[in-house]
User: Which sequence fits this backbone?
């Protein structure tokens, strides 16, 4: 195991995130290293951990949280994509290692989320189809119930875990 360590003097976590991604993320993408150690005395440990896991996930060195693929939406999107994406994130962000595609339309959506584990795709005004991989499993369900249906689909395929309890 090779860990890449770098010490930073930044006191701004956003700047630290950018600089560490450029320095350490680039090396990971080139195949150097198995892990990273961000030393930054001015930034809290929890924040450094969050930045580190983000870099490891982005470089696919270690997948520790849910990934989302979302289209930018356009005139073909006939549901509130931003609000829906937030709802789906809120309910699934604790799942480890799955990829969810959230696409505005059936025309290009399935192709653009080709490697997603689950897909949520608009098919008409407030109509949604759900995919498991590239397979269409629920067609034209109402947007109001579609997020619940997506969670059920994830549960049926054994990829669901309950979110950690907050005290
Ligand atoms: S997937 Fe469909 S809705 Fe989303 S940007 Fe592409 S064409 Fe527009």
Assistant:
């Amino acid at each position: 195991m090779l860990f890449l360590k770098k010490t930073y003097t930044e006191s701004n976590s956003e700047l630290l995130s950018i600089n560490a991604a450029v320095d350490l993320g680039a090396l990971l993408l080139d195949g150097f290293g198995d892990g990273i150690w961000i030393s930054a005395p001015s930034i809290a440990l929890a924040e450094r951990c969050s930045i580190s896991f983000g870099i490891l996930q982005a470089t696919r060195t270690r997948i520790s949280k849910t990934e989302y693929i979302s289209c930018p939406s356009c005139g073909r999107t006939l549901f509130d994509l931003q609000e829906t994406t937030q709802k789906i994130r809120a309910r699934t962000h604790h799942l480890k290692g799955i990829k969810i595609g959230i696409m505005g339309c059936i025309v290009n959506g399935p192709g653009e989320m080709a490697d997603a584990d689950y897909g949520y795709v608009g098919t008409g005004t407030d109509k949604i189809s759900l995919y498991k991989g590239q397979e269409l499993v629920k067609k034209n369900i109402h947007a109001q119930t579609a997020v619940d249906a997506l969670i059920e689909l994830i549960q049926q395929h054994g990829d669901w875990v309950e979110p950690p309890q907050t005290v």
Summary: The chain has a mean pLDDT of 93. The two ends are 36 Å apart (CA to CA). The longest strand covers residues 135-142. Strands lie at 3-7, 35-39, 67-70, 99-103, 118-124, 127-132, 135-142.
